[in-house]
């Protein structure tokens, strides 16, 4: 399997480098809370995948939020891979995998983009 096509990595070398950083690019209409970067599941997953591929954690996980507003700005939030959050993510992935195998699909109580196209939208208490 070839993993060189992960454009979010600043280094794809097997040699240790201080430049091993992972970037997640987002766009939004408002700035994100400062603490949201350490809770970003997608970024944690990228960090875990990096660790599995290269045998070491990335130096930084960086979320770049391009804010679309009257006065556009670029917000840069940084964190590191937290072993506790990494374990929580792996536990969540395991639970989701088990639910998929059982064909048990649960609603997302936070809503989201998927809710707009869900065929159960009219009967779901979480649909917006």
If you had to describe this structure to a student in words, what would you say it looks like?
The protein has a domain at about 20-80. The protein is flat and about 45 Å long. It is built from 2 helices and 3 strands; from the N terminus they run βαββα. Helix content is about 25%, strand content about 20%. It has helices at about 40-55, 85-100; strands at about 20-30, 60-65, 75-80. The protein is of the alpha+beta class.
Structural descriptors:
128 residues; alpha+beta; 26% helix; flat
Give a short overview.
With 128 residues, the protein is of the alpha+beta class. It is built from two helices and three strands, in the order βαββα.
Share of β-strand residues: 15-25%
User: Based on CA inertia axes, which overall geometry fits?
Assistant: flat
Write down the overall mean pLDDT: 80
- The spatial strand order of the largest sheet comes to 1-2-3
Distance between the termini: 41 Å
Which segments are poorly predicted (pLDDT under 50) over 5 or more consecutive residues? 1-7
Percent range of helical residues: 25-40%
SS class: alpha+beta
The number of E-state strands comes to: 3
The major pleated sheet works out as:
3 strands, mixed
